[in-house]
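User: Predict the structure for this protein chain, please.
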Amino acid sequence: MNPPGDSRFADPAAAAPLAAGDGQPSAAGPTAIADGADPAATPTHGGLDCRRCGACCASYRVSFYWAEAEVLSLPDALVEQLTPWHACLAGTQSAKPRCRALHGEIGSRVCCTVYPQRPSPCREVQAGDERCQRARRRHGLPPLAEVR
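Assistant: Here is the predicted structure, written as structure tokens:
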């Protein structure tokens, strides 16, 4: 059971035992779009472009109501069913999560292959917020100034 708060960003390390092969970085797939995100729509904070970080994409389980994947036209290969009502982005339900839509090196240059279609939990993370800071610490990246 997840602690009180937003369970869509559950820490998978506290989850139930995992199946073999979970937590492995994924290779580029057929949905890759190099820098496909609209820079004007990319969250920034103090000059930080989230597409150059990616720490949150490799720190949390990203779960959402299953129908959201269909509405957003997320590729089936990037969606894993959790319950009859919830799904998560592939690769995020493991002790060492890394979304399969994320390509590149954390903290250097990354690309989300479904950035324009990303589900609500991804849209809600703000550069510099508490979840961002925790993910950055997990990957040994320097903290950002707090979001106000």
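The two ends are 30 Å apart (CA to CA).
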